[in-house]
Amino acid sequence: MKKGFLLLAVVVAIAAYSSSRESPRATAKAPIAEETPAEAIVPVAAREAALSFSPANPLQGEPVMVSVEGLSGTTTVSSITFNGKKSGVFAFNGRASALIGLDLRMAPGSYPITAALSDGKTISKSLTVGKRTTVEAPLGIPESLGGNTPESEKELLSTLAQEGAIINQIASVGTRLWSGSFRLPVDPPVFITDTYGYSRLTGASTIAHKGTDYRAAVGTPIYAINSGRVAYKGFLRNYGNVVAIDHGLGLLSIYMHLSEVLVNGGDSAEKGQLIAKSGDTGYVLGPHLHLTIRINQVSIDPERFFALLGD
Ligand SMILES: [Zn+2]
Q1: If you ran DSSP here, which 8-state letter would residue 190 be given?
Q2: Chain-centre distance of CA 193, in angstroms?
Q3: How far apart are the CA of 209 and the centre of ligand 1, in A?
Q4: How much distance in Å is there from the Cα of 205 to the middle of ligand 1?
Q5: pLDDT, tens digit (0-9, with 9 covering 90-100), for 165-219
Q6: The whole model's pTM is what?
Q7: What separation in Å is there between the alpha carbon of 256 and the centre of ligand 1?
Q8: How far, in Å, is the centroid of ligand 1 from the Cα of 212?
Q9: What is the whole-number distance in angstroms between the Cα of residue 213 and the centre of ligand 1?
Q10: CA distances, 254 to each of 66, 250, 270, 291 (Å)
Q11: pLDDT value at position 7?
Q12: Per-residue model confidence as pLDDT tens digits over 58-83
């Protein structure tokens, strides 16, 4: 009560102070501007084209938005290449851009990123990838999957490899299906039970957790984080009921351990569409939603992704 009154008093004081001035603007987070088609990018004359990275100093396991600044005349960007892989180029905040994913296990250091321009020139800049702090925690095998025995550990590793191969084959179309910002897959209040990147010590093995776990009782509504197309729906021993949304240009969001999937392969999905109910299927010790976000087959940290492109 006291706190509320104090807050009110402060708000009134600020309102009184600013009433004689320009109305205060929200500065919390700059909204993502409506994307313009590549050909509508206004050229900036007499400026050298250069690459910029957001975040400027990423760590292993993070997504990075690469943008080309200062394009002149009618020059466009034909491709953006990182680690020998070409990324899909799209217009973002008025600049030719590409999303790249840094693998959790890539060596920290400098990596060149190159953009090929339509006028035949190429521009290049080194991206410095920092080391992520390694966190380790033990995680047992549930009784339903054989319990903590060497046999079930062996079974877990071989089936995880098979399931990884299935996930790797989920296709992404060559056009961008997403727009604007991304929402979380669950409604607030959001509680993260396991973060991306920590190593789970299971028996003698180390399994990296390459997604974010959200607390969700069985039956909790799960929403598409942006628009796209349902690119996979199936049941896997460890991942349980799975649905994957292809957002185009190599970007996938994959939802795991579901009790129910409410869409079918090939369906289009809108941002915020109810696509599934959370559950406890597969390799889990309790109900939750596991969200994987992949950029060109690299699973990156969903929390960092939402920090970069979230609502
Ligand atoms: Zn998980």
Answers
A1: P
A2: 17
A3: 6
A4: 17
A5: 999 999 999 999 999 999 999 999 999 999 999 888 888 888 899 999 999 999 9
A6: 0.83
A7: 8
A8: 6
A9: 5
A10: 23, 13, 15, 6
A11: 45
A12: 999 999 999 999 988 788 999 999 98
- Which residues touch 17 (CB under 8 Å, ≥6 apart)? none
Q: Is the predicted pLDDT of residue 19 greater than 80, yes or no? A: no
Asked if 261 and 305 touch (Cβ cutoff 8 Å), the reply is: no
Give the type of residue at 164: G
276: helix, strand or coil: strand
CA of 290 to the centre of ligand 1 (A): 4
**Ligand 1 center–CA 211 separation, angstroms:** 6
Q: What separation in angstroms does the CA of 13 have from each of 6, 127, 170?
A: 10, 46, 56
| Residue closest to 294 by CA, chosen among 234, 217, 232, 240 | 232
CA of 11 to the centre of ligand 1 (A): 41
Q: How far is the CA of 16 from the centre of ligand 1 (A)?
A: 49
